[in-house]
Specification:
212 residues, alpha/beta, Rossmann fold, Arc Repressor Mutant, subunit A, DNA binding, Flagellar transcriptional regulator FtcR, transcription regulation, two-component regulatory system
Length: 212
């Protein structure tokens, strides 16, 4: 199976990816999106989407829930496996309540039954694109945080770990067998490297890293 190469096209213009085995519906959605100035790319299958390079820009997936091969619902469950982190709008001609509930529980932005109102789809796409903008900012912020933490020395990490645990400088010095001055120096260096403006901010940063 060919592995996808993702996020290699650098652009900030949002993209709507459409995955549906119904060619006429794909074309209709593309036409609708083009009419309101939205960039769109459509695919007849999940695999076709995975085999295509994706833009490095805010985006969302308009995904048919039932298709030959991998279904939209199955793909949604396994998106992490493919390193696809996009908000999903499900569309289906076979909608039922249990399927809708399952889709929403999996984190879908919206679940639309064919034929759906064009405005409902446009509203859902707008919501999904804005959600992806926020998610991208959060992911970039976390990556930056991890990069900064990777730049700490072992000694600085030891001090920071004890700071987050709520220990005072004197206690940290005793725990690590170093002088209190060394604790202060390493803490200051860690704050500079982490770009933390204050001790509470440093603690918040470390808690954020621990939660990932």
């Amino acid at each position: 199976m060919k592995q996808p190469v993702s996020d290699t096209h650098n652009t900030e213009e949002p993209v709507v990816y459409i995955i549906d085995d119904d060619q006429s519906l794909r074309e209709a959605i593309e036409d609708l999106l083009n009419s309101v100035g939205r960039q769109a790319q459509s695919f007849a299958s999940v695999q076709a989407f995975l085999d295509t390079e994706r833009h490095d820009a805010p985006a969302c997936l308009v995904l048919d829930i039932r298709m030959p091969g991998m279904s939209g619902l199955d793909f949604h469950r396994e998106m992490d496996k493919w390193d696809v982190q996009l908000p999903v709008i499900f569309i289906t001609g076979h909608g039922d309540i249990p399927m809708s509930v399952q889709a929403m529980k999996q984190g879908a932005v919206e679940f639309l039954t064919k034929p759906f109102r064009e405005q409902d789809l446009l509203d859902a796409i707008h919501q999904a694109i804005e959600l992806d903008r926020k998610n991208r900012i959060a992911r970039n912020s976390l990556k930056s945080l991890k990069d900064h933490y990777a730049g700490l020395s072992d000694g600085e990490r030891d001090v920071v770990t004890h700071v987050v645990a709520g220990l005072l400088n004197k206690q940290i010095a005793a725990e690590l067998g170093i002088s209190e001055i060394t604790v202060k120096v390493r803490r200051a260096q860690a704050m500079r490297k982490m770009q933390a403006a204050s001790l509470p901010e440093l603690v918040r940063m470390m808690q954020q890293l621990q939660e990932t």
